[in-house]
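The material for today's practical consists of a large collection of protein records. Getting from the letters to the C-alpha cells is the skill we practise here. To make this concrete, we reproduce a full record directly below:
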Amino acid sequence: MCSVMRLLGIPCRVVTNFESAHDVHMNLIVETYIDDNGVNEERTKDSIWNFHVWTEGWMKRPDLGIDGEYDGWQAVDPTPQELSDGVFCCGPASVKGILNGQTGFKYDAPFIFAEVNADCVYYMSTESGEMLKVDSDTKRVGKKISTKAVGSRRRQNITKSYKHKEGSKRERHCFFYAATRDYSKPDDEIDEDEEEEEEEEEVMDTEAESGETDGGGGSGGMEEEPTPQPPSPVTIRFKKVSRPINGKDVNLNLVLKSKSSDARPLSIHISVQAMNHNGRPTGKILAEDKEETLLPGKALSVPILVPFLTYHKPMVESESMKISVVITDKNNGDHKYLATHDVVLLNPQLSITAPAQASLNTLNSGEVVFMNPVNEVLTNCTLTLSGGGLFKEEFEKKIQDLNPNDTMSIKFDFTPYKKGEKTLTADFDCDTFRDIKAICTVNVV
C-alpha cells in the first residue's frame, strides 16, 4: 500500500501501533469479561492486539473544512479489521481529527480513534451470574505509535500526533468529546501545563515495563448496607526476577501493598494463559491458589513461577502469556482486586555471519550457528535463508535433530545480484521453537 501510494505521488509512511484495540461495537470501550479466576470469557469480540499496522498518506481534506485544518497525514488501513459501509476498507481518516476526538469525520474515524485511545473495562462474573466491574484502564491502549525515521533505521515515536499526553485533562476531554459529541466541557478547564510532551523515544524498548495498579476499586457497590469506611485499596505490582527467555523458567514476584492499619488475610488466585497476537487466549498454562497475609506498613512479595516444561507446548504457536491475578480480601469478601501482566518471551540466540562487503555476481559464504538451550531433543528442525538481492529465492535446509547443548553450524553460499545495502535473514524453526530469527547486513558493491 505504501509503495503504491508513493508510485501515485502521494507521500506515505508505514505506522505501527502497539497495544492496538479492536473495538467491534465502536463505543470506544474495550470490554473484557473474566470469570472469578481471572480467565477470559468469550462474551465479546472486543480485543487488544499486541500490534497493528497501517499506512499514512499526506493529503488535502477539503471535505473536512475549507481552511485546511485537517490536511496532512491521513490514516489508511489496507488490512482493515471491520467492514466500512459493507466493504472491508478503512480510511482515509485525518490524524489531526483523531487527535481532537473528531469521531464524526469521514472515514472510519471512530474505529481508528479506538485503536489508539479506547478505554478498557474489566467485568467479573459472580456465582450469582451478576457482572461486576472490577477494573478500568484508560492508559493501556495505543503504546509507542511508531514509524521508521527518515534516512535511518531508527524508530520515530509519533504517539503525540494521535493523542494528547495520556491521562492529561486535554486527553480526557478529547475522549469525552469523541464518545459523546458533547462540547459542554469548556476549554478553560484544561491545564495547558499538562500538555508538555515527553521527549520522543528514538530507540525501541527491549524490556517490558513493570506496571502498578490498585487492582480496581473492588466491589463495595454490592453491599446492601453502607460500611463506615471501605478498606484501603491493595496496590499490585509485577516485578521481574530474571529476563523471560523462551527455554527457561519464567520468574517474577507479585508485590502487594496497602495503607491499611490492620493485617489483611488474602486469597490469591493466579492463572496463566497462552495468548495469540490478536488478544485471544490459545490455551491454559497453569492455575494455582495461595493464602497470604498482608501486614500493615509492609510489602508482601508473592513468587510466581512458570516452568518451561509447563508452558513450552502451549506457547509454540502463541505470541505471549498473560498472567492474571484475582485477590480476595477474606475479611471483606465482596472486595476483589484484579491485575494482569503480559509476558513476551525472548528467543534463544541465533547468530548469522557474512562478509560486511561483497562484490556483485561474486560467490560469497556465510554461517549460521545455534545451540539447543533446553533439556530435550529439538525435532523437525528447519533453517530458512532469504535476502533481496542476495538470494533469488528462499533457501531452505532440513536439519538433523539437536540433542541438549548440541550446536548447529550451517555454512552457506550466496551470489549477490543487486548492488546496495542488503539484509540477510536466517529463520530457525522446530517443534519446540518458532521463528527464531537473526539478520546481518551485506553491502554489495
